[in-house]
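Possible regression after last week's pipeline update?

I re-ran a chain I had predicted before the update to compare outputs. Posting the input and the new output here so someone can diff against the archived version. Not blocking, just want to make sure nothing changed silently.
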Amino acid sequence: MKMLGAVGVCAVLTGLHAWTAELVANPGFETLDDKGQPAEWSWWTRERGAGRMDVSDDRHDGARALKIVHTGEKDWNATNSRRTPVKPGASYAITCWMKRAGDARAGSIQVVGNKGKELVSWSIGRTSEPRRAGWQRCKAWFTVPDTVDTVYVRIVGGGRTECWVDDVQVVPETEPPMVRGPKVDGWAKTRPVEPMGRGTLAVEVAQGVYLSWRLLREDDPKIAFDVFRLKDGGRVKLNAAPLAQTTDFLDTNRFDAAVSYAVEPAAGFAGASQTVRPLALEGRRTPYLRIPLAATNVTAQKVGVGDLDGDGRFDYVIKQPGGNVDPWHKYWYKSPETFKLEARRHDGALLWIKDLGWNIERGMWYSPMIVCDLDGDGRAEVVAKIGPDEDMRDAEGKVERGPEWLAVFDGVTGRERARAAWPPREAFGHYNYASRNQIAVAYLDGRTPCLLALRGTYNLMLADAWQFKDGALHRLWSYSNEELSGRYQGQGAHNCLCADVDGDGRDEVILGSVTLDDDGAPLWCTGKGHPDAHYYGDIDPARPGMELAYIIETRQSKEGGIHLLDPATGTVIWQLQEPTRHVHSCGMCSDLDPTQPGLEIYGADADGHKLTENRWLFSADGRVLKSGKAVDFSFGVPSAWWDADLQRELIRGRALDYDGGVVSERIEGSVVLVADVVGDWREEVLTSIGGELRIYTTPIPAMDRRVCLMQDSAYRMRTMMNAMGYAQVPTLSYVPEALAPNLNVSVNEQKERGVCRVVVVAPLAHGLKGRVTLSAPKNVRLETVEMPVDLAPGGRTVWQIPYEGRHDERGEQIRAVLNVEQGAALKGSVPLGL
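New output (post-update):
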C-alpha cells in the first residue's frame, strides 16, 4: 500500500501507518516541494555534480517513486528530514521497494542513530541492495542500542548508480530467529592426522654444518636425541650427551658432500628418525632450499603446502605465473596468459602441471586453490576452481558466462577425482562483485574436513559446504545473505578462517566480519564491513581463550577500523578510537616487541590506496605503542620466528629485530608464504624468484624447543588458507613467551657505539630467578656484563646497555647466557655489522 507523505494528512492515519508516517516523512515520494523535488528529502554526493535525485513515474505503487542517478566513484545519500525519538532496546523493521538499471548499482536504506543531536552511528540498521531485475522488496531489522535515543533514515550508496526507490517504511517488528539446518555428521569417525616426519635439515654454514629437526606432538615430552655423522659405512656419534634443550646441533667438521647425518631418538625414547644429506651453501649467504619452476622466467603467485604422497614431508603446489589481475574496473586488464598449478615434491621433483585455461582469469580472486587431505588417507588433495575447456571470454577478455566448478585433484597424479557446481554468479549483477572467489576447509563436525566454496565479498556472499566422500562431493549446506539485513552485507574478508570459536568441538567459518556456525547459520556479525585482514589465535595471553584482530577496509565514521574481539560472541574488546577511511591490506598481528606482553597489532589508513600518516601500532590490550611516522610498516610487513628468542623478526629483504638491527643475511625475492615447513620450530620464509621457489631457513642456533608449529590447529589452518587470498602471517593458539622463559637480545648500532637491549621474561605459570651474563667481541666494550634476574610469574625486565668499539669481522656477535635456578641455561646472541 502506498503511504501518504503530506504532514497534513498524518492525523487521519491510524495504527501502524500513522506511526510509520511519523518516522519517515514523505515515505512514498508523493509530495513535491516548490522545485518539483521530493519533499522532506535532501541530496548529497561527495563528488560535486556527480549525481542527482528526482521523481519518476516508474514506480512500484502510487503515482511516483524516487530515481537516483550517480556517475561518480564515491558515496552519495538522500536523507529524510524526520528525526524521531526512540527507546533503547526497541526493535524495528525497515522495508522498501527498489529497482536498479542493468549492471549499475542501487542503494540501501540506512537508519542513523543519534544521542540527541550527536551522531552515534551512521548505521544501526540497513537493508541490502537489490541484485536481480525488476522491483524487489528489501527488508532489514534493527534493535536500538543503549547509546541511541533518536533516529532518522537515509538512502545511501556509492559508485555508478541508477536505481528507483519507493515505499520506505520503518515499523515496530522483532527480527525472526535464524533458520538453522541440521548439524553436520560427516564420514570421518576421528579427525585425520597429517603425517609428520622428523623434518630434519642439514645446511652448510661458516662454522661447519647446522642441523635442525622437529619436535612432534606425539613425542615423549622428555625426549632427547642423538646425531650421527655417516660416511663410507662409518657411523660417528657427534653429541657427547643426549640433546634435550633444543632440536638443533652444529657439527663443526668441514662441510663434506659425501657425508650423511642421522637424527634419532636417544636411548630409552621412541619416535621418528631421519637421515639426510647436507645442503651446500654454494655461495649463498642465507641457506635456502630450491624448488624449481617449469620455466626460468616464471614466478610464483601462491603456494599451497601439504603432504601429497604421504611420506611425512611437505610438498608444494605452486600457482604460477605471478602478477595479479583485479576485477575492479580501475585495475582490471586482459589476462596475458593462463594460470598453471605446478605440484612439486619436497625435493623439487615435478609431479604434475595443470593449465587452468582461459576461463580462470589470471588474478587471485578468480583462481582460489587449497591443499588438504579430504578423504583421510594421509595424502593431500588439491582443490581449485575450474571452468570448461571451451573459451568463454567475451570481446574484452572477461569471463561472465559458462559453467564453473569446484574440483578435487589427486595430489600425486593431478587426476581429477570429483567436481561440483560453483556458487552461481547471476545474483551478483556486477562483474567485480561476482569475481570474488575463495575456498576454505572447516571441520564442521569436528572430525570431517569439509570444503567451502565461497563467492562474494563486498555485498552478496554465498557459501556452499561439501564433504568428499566415496570419490564424490556431497553438499552439506548453503548460505546466502541475500535475504538478510544490511548488517550482513559486504562483511567478507580477503581470506577465510575456520576454527572452533564457540568451544562446541565443531569449526565455525569466519567469513570476515560475519561468522557462520557449523550448520551454516550466522553465529554473529559485527556489521563493521569488509576486513582486508583478520587474525585468529591467542593474541592477548592475559585474557582467557582466543581473540580475533581486524583490519577494516570499510570506512568507519567514528571508531573501529582496527579492533580486537571475542570470537565466541563477536563482542568488541577494544578498538581504534578514531575515524578511518580504508585501513588497507594485511596490516600485522605478531609478537614483535619483547617489552610488551602478547602480540602487537598494526594497521595503516589509506587515501585511495596511498599510504597516509594515520598509522597505529597497538599492544595486545589496546594501548597505542606508536603512531604516525613513528611506525614505518607501510601497509604491513611479513614477520617470522627467525633467531633464537620468542619474538618474530621483520622480513624486509633481511630479518630485523623490532627496534633493533639486522639479524640475517639477504632474503631475496617476493615473500609468498611464512610457515614452519622444515627443521625446528622456527619459521621458513618462502620467496618467489624467476624460475624457482626459495625456502629460506635460519642458520641461527636455537635457545629452546617446542612442537612443530604446523601441529597447532590455528597455525595450520591459516597456513592452509594462505594458498589463496591475501596471505597473512599465521598465529598460534598460544603465545610462546607466555608458556616458556624468554631471553631476547638486540642491538641498535651507531658506528662505533650502540645500545644492546636485553629483555628477560618469566612465563605466566611461574617466576624466574637467575643471572644474565653478556660477552662481546674483543674490541667491543659493554658497560654492563652481568645482571641479576628475579621475576614474578609473567614479569619482565628490560636493560638498555651502552657499548662502544669496533668489531673486527662482519657478523661478530654479542652473546648472552641466562643461567636459571632449577632450570636449563638459555643462550642468545645478536650479530654486529650485518
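Follow-up from reviewer: compared with the archived run. The chain has a mean pLDDT of 95. Marking as no regression found.
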